[in-house]
Write a structure and sequence with these properties.
Layout: H1 6-13, E1 17-20, H2 22-39, E2 46-51, H3 55-62, E3 70-77, E4 90-93, E5 103-111, H4 115-125, E6 131-139, E7 152-156, E8 162-163, E9 179-181
Parallel strand pairs: 2-3, 2-5, 5-6, 6-7
Antiparallel strand pairs: 1-9, 3-4, 8-9
The structure holds 1-O-pyrophosphono-5-O-phosphono-alpha-D-ribofuranose.
1-O-pyrophosphono-5-O-phosphono-alpha-D-ribofuranose (PRP) binds near residues 77, 78, 110 and 113.
Length: about 180
């Protein structure tokens, strides 16, 4: 029997339900890009992508922001291979940019418990930026375990396990072009 990849099972067998289509993503990217362009005009921000999950949203959102900006990346992990947050955030790769006195916009794929955002907020505030804001493609509002503030949100979603558009299941399925719910 021919081996079928998880990607094929999701996309062609309907094993997962589509939650946010490519068309909806593109429309929201245009709206967010316009808003960020207006808010950061003449500020030359540093947009810091949070790896791994944020890599697709980061690549898309920077192409919708029509001002000069710089990019850097930080890699943290709170889930490992589990489907629920471990509650412990680890930094696996730090940024290289000098951010003191600069406008930082952190780019996340999803905010779930909020622990990662709190970790990043504390870390970046210590570096004394001119401003610090967060944009997250997805937000699971009902799952917050700590208080946090997200300045720009792509979509609020229910507390379900989602994959695609950067988000993984056991490290695969990040390359799905839309957001799917795993039932
Ligand atoms: C995910 C996601 C966020 C974090 C959100 O990362 O990219 O960084 O979890 O969860 P929280 O609000 O409960 O902290 P994950 O640890 O799965 O690593 P990955 O991005 O490499 O998949």
């Amino acid at each position: 029997m021919k081996h079928r990849s998880e990607f094929e099972k999701v996309v062609y067998d309907g094993k997962f339900r589509i939650l946010i289509s490519e068309e909806k993503i593109e429309k929201r990217l245009r709206e967010l890009g316009k808003q960020i362009t207006e808010d950061y005009r003449d500020k030359n921000p540093i947009m810091i992508g949070v790896l791994n999950g944020g890599f697709i949203f980061m690549a898309d959102i920077v192409r919708h922001v029509e001002i000069d900006l710089e990019v850097d990346f930080i890699k943290i992990s709170s889930y490992g291979n589990a489907t629920t947050s471990s509650g412990e955030v680890k930094m696996l790769k730090d940024i290289n940019a000098e951010v003191s006195g600069r406008h930082i916009l952190v780019v996340e794929d999803i905010v779930d418990t909020g622990l990662s955002i709190r970790f990043l907020e504390k870390k970046f505030l210590e570096l004394e930026p001119a401003s610090l804001k967060f944009v997250s493609f997805l937000l699971k509002k009902d799952n917050a375990r700590v208080e946090y503030n997200i300045d720009y949100v792509g979509f609020e979603i229910p507390n379900e396990f989602v994959v695609g558009y950067g988000l993984d299941h056991k490290q695969i399925l990040r390359n799905l072009p839309a957001i799917y719910v795993m039932d």
